[in-house]
Amino acid sequence: MAKQIFDDNRRDYGDGLKKFEPNDLNNALMLDLSRLQEEKKQSILNLYFKYRMTVLDNNEESSLVNEINDIFVNEYAI
What we know:
mainly alpha
């Protein structure tokens, strides 16, 4: 979800250059994390710590990041 927010606020230049100008992020949307129930917050933290351990063990498990993103998408879907 964060990648989508960044992608929505960057500029594309020639040769595939993607860049943020000084004020591009000033108008970006933000997630209101206070809307999350404690159970969801704890799930996100648990998944993050599991993911972090896989990175530290040089065995990155990106499916954990996808699970975190799915929580955000489901909670903040319009």
